[in-house]
């Protein structure tokens, strides 16, 4: 890859002026409980490389560029925001991209956009998909240009990028919430909070069923146990599972704030915050910051 392209990636993706404003949202519930809720709009950074996807890919693309890799290879489900982000980033920064898709071959709006951005899609049965390293080796062991990206951008480089979500945030919040899938984003947030001694407790809402492994995964990082917590009871039945109640909540929230949240990640996180407020989880005077990590294009699968 040309040196000028590498510099472009580094300079642009490390731009400190990324547009991710903090907005306060007002609901009667929070007034009654005497607490405040704010949302950091990471979803506004880019229409397709949105939120934590941008953050994760920042260091990943830098690493790929420094190793002169020209072909990004990654993994995801049929409605993966990560696949779309990699496809768009690849087009933007002149990488070839391949996405291995879990499950039977199909077409939808997310995969269609991936193809429009030039990504080659290869569908893999669910059993084979479990061993991503083997899939990569089968197709790309002899391709020195190929660069492996874990599903969701998970890993040390992804977490390193997610640390920057809290960069320059004033130390005034008592709680910082994010949705949790792979655990990469919350690991970055906890790491930043530890390093900079933020008073906020970092709290994650797990969006999948059977997420006990995430607790262990984070504990193994040896963070300060006192300043983080993950909540397992708000997954709505499992990953990508939904309910009429969840969709009704998302619609009400959007109609009152003008902020769209998806049904897989951010809708579950926000609904959990409301539930916790109703249960008096927060002390009076608490200031809560919710990280909107994007994913709103996923709503196109349910909006009618």
List keywords for this structure.
alpha/beta, Rossmann fold, 2 domains, 4-stranded parallel beta sheet, 12 helices
Task: Write a structural description.
- This protein has 304 residues and is an alpha/beta fold.
- The protein has two domains: 3-48 and 159-301, Rossmann fold (3-Layer(aba) Sandwich), CATH 3.40.50.1100; 52-153, 3-Layer(aba) Sandwich (Rossmann fold).
- 39% of the residues lie in helices and 17% in strands.
- It is built from twelve helices and ten strands.
Biggest pleated sheet? 6 strands, mixed
Order of helices and strands: HEHEHEHEHEHHEHEHEHEHHE
Radius of gyration: 19 Å
Helix percent reads: 25-40%
Mean pLDDT: 92
Number of helices: 12
Number of domains: 2
Number of strands: 10
Structural class: alpha/beta
- Strand order, largest beta sheet: 1-2-10-7-8-9
The second-level CATH architecture of the largest domain is: 3-Layer(aba) Sandwich
The gist of it:
By secondary structure, this protein is α/β, with parallel strands linked by helices.
Q: Secondary-structure map with pairings?
A:
Blueprint: H1 3-13, E1 22-25, H2 28-33, E2 36-40, H3 52-66, E3 71-76, H4 81-92, E4 96-102, H5 109-116, E5 120-124, H6 126-129, H7 132-140, E6 146-148, H8 156-162, E7 175-180, H9 184-196, E8 201-206, H10 212-219, E9 228-231, H11 244-257, H12 266-278, E10 287-291
Parallel strand pairs: 2-10, 3-4, 3-6, 4-5, 7-8, 7-10, 8-9
Antiparallel strand pairs: 1-2
Helix pairs in contact: 1-3, 3-8, 4-5, 8-9
